[in-house]
Amino acid sequence: MIDLHCHILxxxxxxxxxxxxxxxxxxxxAADGIRTIVATPHFKxxxxxxxxxxxxxxxxxxxxxxxxxxxxxxxxxxxEVTISPEMIAHLTVGNHLTxxxxxxxxxxxxxxxxxxxxxxxxxxxxDAGMTPIIAHPERNAWFINHPxxxxxxxxxxxxxxxxxxxITGDFGAxxxxxxxxxxxxxxxxxxxxxxxxxDFRPPQLTEAVALAADVVGRERAEALVTTIPRAIIKSxxxxxxxxxxxNLQTQTPVRN
Length: 256
Prior knowledge:
The chain has helices at residues 19-32, 52-68, 87-90, 118-127, 141-145, 147-155, 164-167, 173-184, 206-216, 218-223, 227-233; strands spanning 2-6, 36-39, 42-43, 74-77, 80-82, 104-108, 131-135, 159-163, 190-192, 244-246, 253-255. By secondary structure, it is α/β, with parallel strands linked by helices. A hairpin with a 6-residue loop joins strand 10 (244-246) and strand 11 (253-255).
């Protein structure tokens, strides 16, 4: 499996503080069947910032440590970029804030709200050849209360990643219910851990994929942690999702 969103690098943000903590996270990921992790430290001007050289060095150090310990996990570069007026000055196709130096990037909103014209702002990146992936909208109160606005943005080309622990209920019933809604209506492109630690928020996906399979079927659920993330890290185009509602009993997609 591929974990598209994980705060795995030590000392970069609010994730692990030491290399030993990071190795413990990688051990949990490997035991869960994760073989590729995209390192996505927060990037928020004024709070969390890093250069291309810093993330490259951090990944090189971690990769070397994992190799020395015989752990077969690939670490790729990325970032979780906070939505702000300044982000457009920092983001370009292929720079250190995109996923594996490609066209896709993770975009994070605050937990409670979104700025005015957020959708137009994100859609403007499509014109520049970049594709925003909204990180964990199921944990955002505004999106929970405005699902049609999120759906419209997705059908215009914006992408969505939901958190494994939201599906399992660890972020509460509201986030879990909205995760199921998004899955059922074919509004999810990837499931990722958003891991921050080995214990409190570990990089694990298996349980969430099993629960997602109850909603969308095994093939679709597994695609959210394999084939679609693989296309993203290779910067390949992904078709705009069609609106589909899945039957919970038969796991059969019903096209609207």
